[in-house]
């Protein structure tokens, strides 16, 4: 038991830069308190003391704002950061080194008995406010963006955002199969705990990037054609194309200093 407690405390220091001392972690991290109460209530549940297990779970919810059904299975070094509003259903299964942020729901989509809650494999990260619903499986290392709703299986090492959840970052192996610039852009997306990093655009921003790259490619092709035609004596392309001012895109959140030279295109040209 003490071994698990030490592991839990170390996991906080590994995943939360705000943690300063062991005493602070022991006394001020409700996510740990909820997990420790759950370990006891889970044992009571399997010993057949179901009312007592549910009562302890309810007390833990009152104390921490985190509701974990005694029947749920939690692995080692599970970290619930902040924690308020987290709900974990009866048949949920959580692997080792999983991180959940506040407002996360691991819920069911059916009133039928049996497996009706999700399974999270090792290393999964679920961002704040996300909902993972139904008897689905999230593969090892998968990430869920903030406020996303996931209702289908997610492969290993994939990132999911949106409602319903859409995979925006596949495995490194599949990224290698993409060609050129798009693979480099995809690899840059990355993921932070809340899935709102500047380098992690949503699907709409991603589509805008693809369109800008396509426009730039077409401009280059037209310029090449004009050069050849002019060399043959044709009188074309005497006027230069108007430039796109990136300040006009300020309201979209596009940063003109990012996603230009590294991807090999400049939207301002």
Any chance you could write out the topology, listing elements then pairs?
Layout: H1 2-15, H2 22-28, H3 30-46, H4 50-64, E1 67-68, E2 73-74, E3 79-80, E4 87-88, E5 93-94, E6 99-100, E7 105-107, E8 119-120, E9 125-126, E10 131-133, E11 137-138, E12 143-144, E13 149-150, E14 159-161, E15 166-169, H5 172-176, H6 180-188, H7 203-231
Parallel strand pairs: 1-4, 2-5, 3-6, 4-7, 5-8, 6-9, 7-10, 8-11, 9-12, 10-13, 12-14
Antiparallel strand pairs: 14-15
Helix pairs in contact: 3-4
What this model shows, in words?
With 269 residues, this protein is an alpha/beta fold. It has helices spanning 2-15, 22-28, 30-46, 50-64, 172-176, 180-188, 203-231; strands at residues 67-68, 73-74, 79-80, 87-88, 93-94, 99-100, 105-107, 119-120, 125-126, 131-133, 137-138, 143-144, 149-150, 159-161, 166-169. Strand 14 (159-161) and strand 15 (166-169) form a beta hairpin. Helix 3 runs antiparallel to helix 4 (50-64). It is elongated, with a radius of gyration of 25 Å.
Rounded mean pLDDT is 78
Percent of residues in beta strands: 5-15%
For the biggest β-sheet, the strand order reads 3-6-9-12-14-15
Largest sheet data: 6 strands, mixed
Count of strand segments:
15
Estimated structural class: alpha/beta
- Specify the CATH architecture of the largest domain: 3 Solenoid
Number of helix segments?
A: 7
> Helical content, roughly?
25-40%
- CATH fourth-tier homologous superfamily of the largest domain: Hexapeptide repeat proteins
N- to C-terminal distance: 63 Å
Whole-number total of structural domains: 2
The parts where pLDDT drops under 50 for at least 5 residues are 171-179, 185-201, 259-269
């Amino acid at each position: 038991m003490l071994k698990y407690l030490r592991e839990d405390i170390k996991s906080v220091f590994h995943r939360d830069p705000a943690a300063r001392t062991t005493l602070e972690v022991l006394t001020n991290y409700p996510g740990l308190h909820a997990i420790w109460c759950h370990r006891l209530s889970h044992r009571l549940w399997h010993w057949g003391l179901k009312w007592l297990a549910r009562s302890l779970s309810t007390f833990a919810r009152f104390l921490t704002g985190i509701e974990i059904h005694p029947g749920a299975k939690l692995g080692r070094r599970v970290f619930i950061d902040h924690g308020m509003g987290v709900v974990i259903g009866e048949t949920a299964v959580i692997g080792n080194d999983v991180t959940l942020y506040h407002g996360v729901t691991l819920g069911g989509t059916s009133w039928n008995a049996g497996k009706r809650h999700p399974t999270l494999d090792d290393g999964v990260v679920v961002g704040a406010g996300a909902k993972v619903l139904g008897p689905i499986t999230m593969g090892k290392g998968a990430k869920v963006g903030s406020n996303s709703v996931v209702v289908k299986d997610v492969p290993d090492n994939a990132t999911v955002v949106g409602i319903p959840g859409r995979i925006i970052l596949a495995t490194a192996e599949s990224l290698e199969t993409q060609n050129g610039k798009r693979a480099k852009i995809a690899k840059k997306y990355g993921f932070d705990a809340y899935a709102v990093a500047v380098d992690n655009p949503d699907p709409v921003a991603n589509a805008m990037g693809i369109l800008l790259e396509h426009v730039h490619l077409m401009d280059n092709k037209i310029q090449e054609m004009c050069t050849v035609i002019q060399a043959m004596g044709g009188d074309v392309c005497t006027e230069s194309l108007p430039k796109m001012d990136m300040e006009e895109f300020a309201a979209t959140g596009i940063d003109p200093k990012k996603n230009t030279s590294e991807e090999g295109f400049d939207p301002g040209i």
